[in-house]
Specification:
The chain is built from 16 helices and 17 strands. By secondary structure, the protein is α/β, with parallel strands linked by helices. It folds into two domains: 277 residues, LarA, N-terminal domain (Rossmann fold), CATH 3.40.50; 148 residues, no CATH class. Helix 2 packs parallel to helix 4, helix 12 packs across helix 15 and helix 14 packs parallel to helix 15. The protein binds iron/sulfur cluster. Iron/sulfur cluster binds next to strand 15.
């Protein structure tokens, strides 16, 4: 065995038992010579969580509990042990933590919680020849962490194919900065986040993995915990576990090319008590969702998509990382609430990218042009329409001047945009990207679908958490 190789462990674990998980992670830390110290920050994936509607999207509380217990036992000279995260689609992190069952775990272990949407965001200089920009804004607890432990959930991803260690870092950014470059440059952005900080230990919750979507995945019993100290090595092994060529994980290729770690199995020492081949034998039918939206939605649904050309030469025929994937996630959220939504919604024609020539529009169809890069000129029901692109490449987007983008502001902005355009038989939704949350609002308005943001199961607790978040954010801004 070559001792210079990065080591990755695949350990057998078939159930969410916190004590058993703690034992496995402790064993892994010992084998990998991991000794947490200083300010230790554990970063799970809680992009969204709800016991009924989104049960498979997040790192489970038993996994977090096991990871904290192992960290406490293995740490030497830790001045702080904390859990930190920023949930997705502008949901208050307090709300998703509660839904995930985290507060009891955090209290039981006596560790600190950092909600990244409530703390100060600070710029970190990263500029080099490869990066999209010179500074990236991150929460202060991440900037000050001495020992970051990454606790991703093993999931397929409709924008990036897989979300493992590298992709989990999208969750270190708050709303205001998260959507900067979360578009046709998403994979580059993920590689840029490695320039800020790299985890010193990674443990992936692959006990029940997620297939297809990242917010509404279907469960897959993988029965594994993957551990390592290098994100590229861990993600490479994760790819092989589900028959993905690591070269097809663009952000992994970009990060590896920049020297962050290997992406060739020959350069990785794969160990542990669960052989890679045994995992591969049961994941032959692990499901992904990587279809272009014009193929994904056009058959047997009331949602028809026209996809045009895109402005960047690295991906001229599709925008992975932006509006199309956000549409898929939004429709899957609706489906989680209303299983027959594809047939029950009004007819919608979704247009994205630079489209030339007439559109095939039915009389009873409402058209939505989505995204700043979208352009089209033609007639809809006898009226001329001219949609112009306002796309800006990353060098023309100033990350220091981003606008506030929280849950209520987003709701007000998108719903008033719909109201202002209600006399027309089309809507132009602007943004780069138009986020999943915005898509939910726009589709509910034009498709006549009940808006899930106002679902009685969520609305009270969500808004209490929002007010709580705003209060704590203001206190942190003025008193720290
Ligand atoms: S506007 Fe949307 S589809 Fe166009 S480049 Fe930006 S994120 Fe991609």
């Amino acid at each position: 065995m070559n001792s210079n190789k990065e080591k990755v462990l695949i350990m057998r674990c078939n159930r969410y038992d916190a004590d058993r998980i703690a034992g496995i992670i402790k064993e892994g830390m010992a084998e990998l010579d991991v000794v947490p110290s200083g300010r230790v920050l554990l970063k799970p994936n809680v992009v969204i969580a709800h016991p009924d509607v989104f049960p498979y999207a997040f790192t489970r509380k038993e996994f977090l509990s096991g990871a904290i217990a192992a960290t406490k036992q293995m740490a030497q000279g830790a001045s702080e042990i904390a859990v930190g995260e920023r949930s997705g689609i502008t949901l208050p992190t307090r709300w998703t933590f509660k839904n995930a069952g985290y507060p009891e775990v955090i209290k039981t272990h006596g560790v600190k919680a950092y909600y990244f949407d409530e703390v100060q965001q600070v710029p970190v200089q990263i500029g080099n020849d490869h990066t999209l920009r010179k500074n990236i804004y991150i929460p202060r607890p991440v900037a000050e962490a001495d020992f970051l432990i990454n606790l991703p959930k093993f999931k397929a991803h409709p924008w990036c194919r897989l979300t493992l260690s590298l992709k989990n870092f999208i969750g270190i950014q708050d709303d205001r900065h998260r959507l900067v470059d979360h578009n046709i440059f998403l994979e580059h952005k993920i590689a840029d986040l490695q320039e800020v900080i790299q985890p010193k230990f990674i443990a992936i919750d692959a006990i029940t993995a997620g297939q297809k979507m990242m917010l509404t995945p279907t469960p897959f019993e993988m029965g594994a915990i993957i551990m390592g100290t290098n994100s590229c090595a861990v993600d490479t092994v994760g790819c092989h576990m589900v028959h993905v060529d690591p070269k097809d994980l663009k952000h992994l290729s970009l990060a590896s090319d920049r020297g962050f770690g290997p992406m060739d199995l020959n350069d990785i020492d794969v160990a542990g008590d669960l052989p890679l081949e045994e995992v591969r034998s049961k994941t032959k039918h692990f499901e992904f969702c990587l279809e272009h939206i014009d193929r994904y939605f056009n058959e047997k649904t009331n949602l028809k998509c026209t996809v045009g050309a895109f402005p960047e030469k690295h991906s001229p025929d599709y925008c992975w990382g932006g509006c199309p994937g956000a549409l898929q996630e939004a429709m899957h959220i609706f489906k989680a609430y209303y299983p027959d939504v594809y047939n029950e919604m009004r007819k919608v024609h979704y247009v994205v990218g630079r489209v030339e020539g007439p559109l095939d529009i039915d009389k009873d169809e409402k058209v939505i042009f989505v995204g700043n890069c979208t352009s089209w000129r033609g007639n809809i029901n006898g009226k001329s329409v001219d949609i112009k692109s306002s796309y800006k490449s990353p060098r023309n987007v100033d990350e220091r001047n981003t606008k506030s983008n929280d849950m209520v502001l987003k709701t007000v902005k998108t719903l008033s945009s719909c109201m202002l355009q209600r006399g027309k038989n089309y809507i132009h939704a602007k943004g780069c990207p138009v986020s999943v949350g915005d898509h939910v609002h726009y589709l509910s308005m034009i498709g006549g679908i009940k808006n899930v943001n106002f679902d009685p199961r969520l609305v009270v607790s969500l808004n209490i958490a929002y007010l709580n978040m705003r209060t704590h954010r203001a206190m942190n801004r003025y008193f720290t």
